[in-house]
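Before a colleague's protein record goes any further, I have to sign it off. Alongside the sequence sits a line of tokens, each denoting a local backbone shape. I want your independent view on whether this chain really folds as the tokens say. Where you disagree with what is written, explain briefly why. This is what I was given:
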Amino acid sequence: MDKVYQLGRKFGLDRVQLTYRSLIRMSTFIIGIFIILAWIASLFTNSKTSSRFSILAGQDYYEAEKQLYELLSKQSDSKEHWRLLVDLRSLYKGRLPAELSTAQNTFESQQSGFNSKPYFTAQSFMDFLGTAENPPPEALKVRYLYRVSGGKNSAILFNSYPQPEIKFELVLASLGKIPYSQTLKILDELIAAGYDNEDVRKLTIRCLTIIKDKSEIAKRLADPEWQKYADSHLLYSYHFAEKNYGKMLYYLTLSQYQGYSWQVLTICLVAGFGWAFFLVHLGAGWSWPKRDFALVLVALVLGALSAILTLFVVELQHKWIDYANQEKTLIYNLAYCILGIGLREEFCKMLLFVPLLLFLKNEHSDCKILIFSSLVGLGFAIEENFGYLTRADGHPAALMARFMTANFLHMLLTGYICYHLTIAIQRKGKHWDNFTNSFIKMVVVHGVYDFLLIDGSMVSQGMDFFAMMLYIWIAMQYMRLMLYTSPPSHRYVSLTRVFTLVLAISFGLCLFIFSLEIGVILAVKASIMAIVGNVIFAYMFYYVFNEVVH
């Protein structure tokens, strides 16, 4: 009688009945604990983040504008919140106030993105902007004009307002909507005119990073006054242009961890290790030797490193094919998603899996081989999630969507490929054909899945629905392979219960952390649809587990 069996008997796990009621009760209890903790934390904090006001505006614009008014009445120099107030207000359709009536023939208003009425009237809104200390009132009003026009006739605004403060505000509002080379030219003119400060220089560096002007970057970096504003993104672009690939890879790695918050790191790591816990449980890993648990961490780290390597390949690939200047046709986007995204990511993950072959080449358990192969894909997904969630401001819906899709998809794609690679090395012969077929199949599946989700014409026609169908089809094949290869040992805790536990903890933690940013009620409301969608996906797993639930 092994230790696991003894432990199971001690706690009576062999007598626990799996029921829908117990699963719902367990999930509700776990998520409820996190919500209660978030509510207690909210008693000691008062979140005033931009994310909070933006999400509140989508649910109750009147209340969002009212709370911004209350905050700015006390903090009239809060640049971030003044700009947010202007940007949210500009989404309303309606006549411009009399103060700006001369511009009515030039600018058009755009359709409102909100349902509820605003807190300010048109004139009282403009009067309130007049109380701003930083940015200046006139700069905010011109920003409002630019936003209301949807960016049309921006040249008229830039020529009509030569004041540096106003022109810089227009630069911020138009960032990404006009060519970055034009933005850089305007910023250099501001600096030459004496409007030279930290904000201007940081934005100049950001433009240089995007434009990747080799000579201009080298010129700025030669000046000590500019060097202190150079971040890792600029430095890796510079060294890539100089073909210093060693330094480029160093700064590329640093750039991946630039701007992460502890909230995003915590959520990604907990969700990732939750999946790792599930895989180990599925493979009856609690009786594995200690060395194998060390390999679990090694596999995750190798997967994370493969994500860094993939970024390096992206830079090389984009340079070789001149990606920025290619016409993005339907056929080109499909070919790029398969031969670009799918091929490079799966190849890099497979390449970083190779060190594990030293330990797995003599492994007789097919399930263990599949699990370690999948862990490399999971490590890649964890690292990739850092960047996605940082760009999404840690929104819970973004994490919940990626928990059930991207995390598992990378696990299964890499699991399939590296499993068949290991089997081919062990058994040779026709198994090399199986590996080749699996590699090509997973690269195509990866590419088509991404194509259906990121190509504008596919998304606009609702074709992203078929991406979910493709995901479900390949996920069910993978789970059946995993269950087929798993050892026929008795599980004292069912896969269904462990999967539900991991799901509840990950979602509960996500809600807790996001609640600290925007408040409990808003976080719950923002997460409801994501939770419903993931429950539907979870049913697929429960179906494949084929466990009796009373």
About this structure: Residues 50-256 form one domain.
